[in-house]
Design brief:
alpha/beta
Amino acid sequence: MRVLTNDDVEGLLSPADVLEALEEAYREHAAGKAANRPRNHTYFPVEDERYPGFRFRFKSQEGGNVSSGVWALRITSDMAGVEDLGNGVKRRRLMPAAPGGRYVGLVTLYSLRTLEPLAIMHDSVIQKWRVAATSALGIRALAPKSATVAGLFGSGWQAQAHLDMLLHVRPEIEEVRVYSPTPAHREAFAREHTERTGRRIVAVDDRRDAVEGCPLVTCATAAMEPCFDGRWLDSGAHVTSITSPDGTAMRRELDDETFDRADRIVVLSREQVHHDRQIDILGPVERGRMSFDDIRELGELLDGAVPGRNGGDELTIFANNTGMGLQFAAVGARVLAKAEEKGIGREIPTEWFLEETTP
């Protein structure tokens, strides 16, 4: 069995790898050739005195697809809570409570054929890229092709990954307007990524400036409250969000106005909408603006079962509404194949994990 660190994974993955692996997995899921268990969070009444108000949380998700040949189990053992940034702004945060000021997140891959565990790898690099690549697949399918200006909410590691994936699938984007609650963070983000990407990455002081005049708006935050007022959206815009209620916290990035204005809503997982009671996505259904059957999945869109953008004035939303074990199977299998080819990682005896009696 191979053990891979985040550094190993980072050196093996490219944007094209992640996009290809996930697109295939979502198509297979739509065709009944993949499976996924809804993500689950369990909080436990244990706190760390260093982080008052934060509690132990265990998160797990699992899934697999035929072409990857693996089943993935992703777990995180967290100290989770909500941080107050001031000015009424709050965000979810995980604390580095493990020894050495670290975190615990692992992906285990199992062979669908021989049953044995094939690899254990750190999760956060795959976590970052699988979210951003999924958003990018939604953008590629739904965003207006004439867009040259985009708005981006967030200036952290997930926002960086979303910026990179956005420019990968839409290289014609010339300007990205960035808003986040902390001026120093968004200004540093704009300077760094203007130099790195060669595009105009502009920090804006008013969140409205990251919406109006932007036919493509992406939220890549850990926000608890909506990032902007949906009345500011231009007709024909495409909006991406990555935060919805997760069964333990009623956080969201998009307001009711945004969802009610949408002509089309696509999600990553319809099952997770009900599992986590994602009231942001269910809002238009409960207010009678559309039926739940009108909300479709990304896999259906990629598989051709659902058409892409219908017209220039259509306002579309892709709610990247959950993490899927399926994603870790698809991308993890790609990482493992490259690691084996290049001899990267540490090998430990698989026999240590096999038993002679029935489980």
